[in-house]
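Quick log. Single chain, no ligands specified.
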Amino acid sequence: MILEARAGQLTALNPKSVLGRGFTLTKRKKTGAILRTAEGIRPGDLLLTEFGQGKVIESQVTSQ
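-> predicted structure:
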C-alpha cells in the first residue's frame, strides 16, 4: 500500500504527467531547457513543444 502511494506521488510530480490533461511542455531546442516563463525568449529562438500523445513541434519565435 505504501509503495503504491509513493508511486502515485512520483507520477503526479512528473512534468510529463500534465501533458495528458491538455498542457504542453516547451523547451529551448538548443539546450533542452524547459521554459517556465516567457522571460529571456528572443526573436529567432527555436523552441520544441511536446504534446500529450508524444507529438513534438518545432517553432521559431518571431516577435517579443
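The chain has one domain: 16-60.
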